[in-house]
Write a structure and sequence with these properties.
Structural class: alpha/beta
Strand content: 15-25%
CATH class: Alpha Beta
CATH topology: Inosine-uridine Nucleoside N-ribohydrolase, Chain A
Number of strands: 11
Shape: globular
Order of helices and strands: EHEHEHHEHEHHEHEHHEHEEEH
Radius of gyration: 18 Å
CATH architecture: Alpha-Beta Complex
Mean pLDDT: 97
Distance between the termini: 21 Å
Bound molecules: alpha-D-ribofuranose, calcium ion
Length: 309
Amino acid sequence: MTTRKIIMDCDPGHDDAIAIILAAVQPKLEILGITTVSGNAEIEKTTDNALKICDLVSLHDVIVSKGASEPIVRLRETAPGIHGDSGLDGPELPTPSRSWSDEHGVDTIIRLVKESKEPVTILPTGPLTNIGLALTKAPDIKDNIEEIVLMGGGTFGNWTPTAEFNIWADPEAARKVFESGIPTVVMGLDITHQALATTEVIDQVNQIDNRVSNIVGELLVFFASTYKEMFDFDGAPVHDVLTVAYLVAPELFKMKDVNIVVETKGEFTAGTTSVDLHGVTGREVNAKFGVGLDVEGFWKLMIDALKKY
Ligand code: RIB
Ligand code: CA
């Protein structure tokens, strides 16, 4: 079986962490590297969290490189109200067994893509700063990127009424990605809000009762509590996990070919993704946009993966 080479660029973050946990146990996927970005928390915290999750799932040989500590243009803002001060509040995780690489995350992305004998798929699940910088520093890496499968955007927002956090945090970087011409798959809020970790789901996770599933259960309990408090949701949307699930089981997804542009100038609308669902603009298709999820199939995939630990 040919494995798909992936780089995970993330800001753990509860759902980023669960995305790594799902990916780490997929024979179809080979994680070439994990790069981190400031987003849910400051860069040192998101990187520390990535290392803690790598220890949890025994990803001891996968490079973890610290990336951009702030957006390309805008001032950094984090999301402690959703993910806690540590960026991964809830479970107690041991201090990481190793430190992050000396190589900057952007350079790791460039190096791994250039070195790979097969095209690489990049899974950004935080602000797109590292990807935007990598494309600026080494435009030729486009030739060896198979696809970008990102979590971000949507036809509505969660950080402003119209902008989703990952895109809002660095719209200039996001614009570079959407204008890059690289085949791009977008898991926006329209589909990620269908993947809710309800109490029933959390109960199923806790019934597995192994070391990893118990941590995932604690992550989901915390994440669901902040989504209840902030948005009155009956469960936490595990946004980022859909990027991995898409690679492993694309049959669970209903996608639509669309044009997406990123607003970078609006006083009230910066970070908004204008998703042309019905082709009214006549602009060229530049993304596959997630619109429907086989929710039962998705959670079965997640539960089955956790049982493998
Ligand atoms: O808006 C949801 C996104 O913002 C997810 O990637 C979550 O981890 C946060 O980064
Ligand atoms: Ca994230």
